[in-house]
Amino acid sequence: MSSIDYDETIPNNVNLSEDRTLKRALEHWQPNYLSWWQDMGPDGSHNFDVYLRTAVSVDPQGWAQFGHVKMPDYRWGIFLNPGEADRKIHFGDHKGENVWNDVPGEYRANLRRIIVTQGDTEPASVEQQRHLGLTAPSQYDLRNLFQVNVEEGRHLWAMVYLLHKYFGRDGREEAEGLLERRSGQEDNPRILQAFNEATPDWLSFFMFTYFTDRDGKFQLCALAESSFDPLARTTKFMLTEEAHHMFVGESGVGRVITRTAQMINELKTDDPAKLRAAGVIDLQTIQRYINFHFSVTIDLFGADESSNAATFYSTGLKGRYEEGKRMDDHVLKGQSYHVLEVRNGQLANKEVPMLNALNEVLRDDYIKDSVAGVERWNKILDKAGISFRFKAPHKAFHRNIGPLAAVKVSPEGQVISDAEWKANVDTWLPSAGDRAYVASLMGRCVEPGKFANWIAPPVMGINRQPVDFEYVRFN
Ligand SMILES: [Fe+2]
Ligand SMILES: [Fe+2]
Question: What pLDDT sits at residue 4?
Fold first, then answer.
């Protein structure tokens, strides 16, 4: 029927050309994927030649090959990290048993749900970011956006591979569903709320790749511990790509801060109005974007107490972040953890069984990691001799999931009234005015080596190319 040479068009280390069932399933899915990319991939980009990294194998030489390609021709590959011989399940009720190379019948529904939920975020972010190319602040940034987009596409392939290979007909239906839901669409939205929010401007994009791709890192790390070995090996390889996404976010926000700091020192004022008049983003607005993206992202870890989280752990489907490095019994029965609740109008700790609090455990690990980057942003201000400091908001601030969704909490962690919230919300979260101002800065700046006024150039280019390299040829 089809003459696709899979080893050529879909680089893989899963013996694709020899697995006829899988081949047939993918032959059916691939054209639908490509038509999704045509419709929902980066707007107006299909003819550009983009300097992209492609993985053609998992070894150090093969996982990052650079060259100019048209994105619809990108070779979305399927890679599993090499398996460990005799790998044992190392947490939960099955601890010590051999890992599974197939899906145990009793865990099929839960594993499918975990894989679909992860898979759904991948095309969602491509959809959220699809108009950003039209207002890129430089060719370098445009290329980074596209790199993130094609790799999210590859992550979708990674999850679809698992669905096709291990879940039969249900898996094929789920794989179709992943191409049918649409970010932000009312009648068929993406599964998780943060993936239905708009990414309307580049400051949002950098915040998203810093904060929300980092949620991806923590989810993938937890799945990399899974007793279902193909899931563990797939997610391990995805993590190598995720690092670049977070780099794009951290360095992107850092360059915005660098530019603003230059202007503060040049004009000798930190007055937001004067800085805006000079065309840069004031530090207070950046802080409000941090507050927004941090709070929306920590909701992604789910309810503070969750019996599903306990089940996923005890049955060995999903571990903790760095499970192997922890010094406890890896079963966690009879242990406790603290979550927040509101008592007498104040936030207070409540001890709950740790197994039920594993969402909160992962959220707290995430918070530690993401706060570290905020401190690195502060170093930029410190070096520039500016006393302003960014701060991640309290974890109870602006929450939409769990018991904290029922109360209003300030960024410092004070429970406040609705009236106080209303009076202050515009100083805590991006206001319509902030968003309109940031939007007004967005304009296409794509001559090689040129950068929009509101962002500093990067310290170096991609893959040791110069900063003014022709990263995108528009044709
Ligand atoms: Fe991803
Ligand atoms: Fe990502």
Answer: 57
Residue 160 counted as domain residue? yes
CATH code, domain with 186? 1.10.620.20
pLDDT at residue 2, rounded to an integer? 45
- Please state the pTM of the whole predicted model: 0.96
Q: How far is the CA of 104 from the centre of ligand 1 (A)?
A: 26
Q: How far away, in angstroms, is 187 Cα from ligand 1 center? A: 24
What pLDDT is recorded for position 5?
67
Note whether residue 1 is domain-resident: no
Query: Sign of torsion, CA 177 179 184 190?
Result: positive
Residue 346 alpha carbon to ligand 1 centre in Å: 37
Cα 201 to ligand 1 centre (Å)? 20
Predicted local distance difference test score (pLDDT) of residue 23: 87
Ligand with the closest atom to the CA of 209: 2
**From ligand 1's centre to the CA of 146, what distance in Å?**
13
* DSSP 8-state assignment for residue 351: E
Backbone conformation region of residue 7, classed left if phi is above 0, alpha if psi is from -120 to 50, else beta: alpha
Number of domains comprising the chain:
1
Distance 151 CA to ligand 1 centre (A): 7
Measured in Å, residue 61 CA sits from the centre of ligand 2 at: 22
Residue 346 lies in a domain: yes
User: What stretches in the chain show pLDDT beneath 50?
Assistant: 1-3
Query: The domain containing residue 458 runs over which residues?
Result: 6-473
- Asked whether residue 292 is assigned to any structural domain, the reply reads yes
- pLDDT given at position 150: 97
Residue 405 DSSP label = G
Please list the residues that pair with 51 across neighbouring strands: 68
